[in-house]
Structures are given as structure tokens and as C-alpha cells.
Amino acid sequence: MRVYGKVATGFWQDEKVLPLSDRTKLLALYLLTGPHSNLLGCFRLPVGYISADLNWSPKAVRRGLAALARIGYLRRDEATGLTLLPNYFRYNTIENPNVGKRAAALIKGLPHDSEIMMELAAMLTPFADRLPSGLLEHLALSSQHPPRPSAAAPNDPAVKELPLPLSQAFTTFWDEFPTGPLGASARNRAAAAFERVVASGRASPDQLVEGARRYAAAIDPHTEKPSDPATWLAVEQWRRVNATNRKPTP
């Protein structure tokens, strides 16, 4: 259990927080600083725990959680009580590899059969160099079981006919992705991740190539370290990246 939790002073001026009731604001602060929170901003928190800690009825707890979910303050899996604070790492970071090891230990204790874990993997991607090797890819892959209802099965006609031969598509992806000085091992891991994504029906080769192009346009390789390609694929970053117009580097 943590001894303390951080609350940014901007919390009180946040345009989404201002309209909330005092009780809902209290719940928001409890999620940041309560005894069940952790350095991941992702933890198992049954309604009964909140009810006991705040002396609220279960109905009042659910009403407060729903209000916070509506403004995007949290994501929650009611079946397991797994709760995620999507903006947690805006003010809290994985500062070094030792913190990364503690984060990995916490992750082991969380239920992995939830799409929330995929979102956690995406949140942790900027700190990949401070986390144990392979953790993010393992986390993203384990959270894909059971398969999502919307995902095409491997024998679905939508994924039988590829717009490009798979090997050619991956070569194009690799050329477009801002890989930096990566070796054969990183390329092989990326190729395996690329194949898994396509086989599962989560994206076509063309979508992954276009995502790599957008990602290359969205970062400045002179000031930002690119994500590991295999991890980028595993956590579905192609769904999130948007190209931006950067200022020319002096």
C-alpha cells in the first residue's frame, strides 16, 4: 500500500471536474490517493471496498463511478473491479528501471483477461525502456484472450486475401517505421507481431503500413525515442497515433 498519492493543483480548475458534485470530487480524489491505488493508476477495486472506506451505500458508489466514467476520468471492468485512470501518467511517471520492476510486479497481480489491460499497456509504452524486456508485448497479448467479439477470426474472408503479400507488406512497414539503429532481433520480433495482428483480423497490412507512416510523421526522431516496433504493434498504437505538423529542427 502506498504511503501517499499525488494530486495536481490543476485538478480543482479542470473543466471536467468543476461541474461535478462534491461527493463525486471526493471519489475522484479517493481513486488517486486511496489505500487501494498504486503506481500504475490501475488496480482492482470492488464496490464494497469503496463503500467501506467512504461509508457510502453501494448505490451511491456506483452512481459516482458512472459520473467519473462519463467524463473519461476512469475506465472500469465491473466484472473484476479492475479500475484504470487513463490520465494517471500525466503527473506520475515510471521514473527509472527500479520503479519499472515494481510496476511489473504489480501487473502480475492484476486480472489479464480484460481489455483494460490493453489500455494500460498503451499507457506504459512511453516508459518501455524502464520496464522489464518483453513486459508490454506480453501484457498486450495476454489481454486479447478471450478474443474480442468484433475481431475477425483467422479464417474470416476479410483476412484471407491480403492487399499485399505479407512479407512485402512487412518490409514496407519496417521501412516506414522510425526504427532507428535496430538489429535483426528487433526486426524478427516486429515481424512476428505484425503477422499476429494481421492473422487475428485486428488490422490489415495496409492499415499497419499507414499507421507506421503517421507515427513517423508524428514524432521528432531528434528529440523523441521511437517505440519498439513489436510493442507498438502489440498495444495497437496504430489506432491512436495522429500525424502532426512539427516545427523544423534547427
Describe this structure in words.
The chain contains ten helices and three strands. Strand 2 and strand 3 (82-84) form a beta hairpin. By secondary structure, the chain is mostly helical. The chain folds into two domains: 9-90, Winged helix-like DNA-binding domain superfamily/Winged helix DNA-binding domain (Arc Repressor Mutant, subunit A); 149-250, no CATH class. It is 44% helix and 4% strand. The chain has a three-stranded antiparallel sheet, with helices on one face. The model is unreliable at 145-163 and 244-250 (pLDDT under 50). Helix 1 crosses helix 3. The protein has helices at 22-33, 47-54, 58-70, 97-108, 115-124, 135-142, 166-176, 184-200, 205-218, 229-234, and strands at residues 42-44, 75-77, 82-84.
Compact summary:
The chain is mainly α.
What attributes characterize this protein structure?
250 residues, mainly alpha, Arc Repressor Mutant, subunit A, 2 domains, 3-stranded antiparallel beta sheet, 10 helices, 3 strands, elongated, disordered C terminus
Write the layout of secondary structure elements.
Blueprint: H1 22-33, E1 42-44, H2 47-54, H3 58-70, E2 75-77, E3 82-84, H4 97-108, H5 115-124, H6 135-142, H7 166-176, H8 184-200, H9 205-218, H10 229-234
Antiparallel strand pairs: 1-3, 2-3
Helix pairs in contact: 1-3, 2-3, 5-6, 7-9
Category by helix and strand content: mainly alpha
Count of helix runs? 10
Overall radius of gyration = 20 Å
What fraction of residues sit in β-strands? under 5%
Low-confidence stretches: 145-163, 244-250
Widest sheet, order of strands: 1-3-2
Termini, distance in Å? 46 Å
Domains (count): 2
| Biggest pleated sheet | 3 strands, antiparallel
Let me know the number of strands.
Answer: 3
Form type: elongated
Order of helix and strand elements from N to C terminus: HEHHEEHHHHHHH
What portion of residues is helical? 40-55%
> Mean of the pLDDT scores?
82
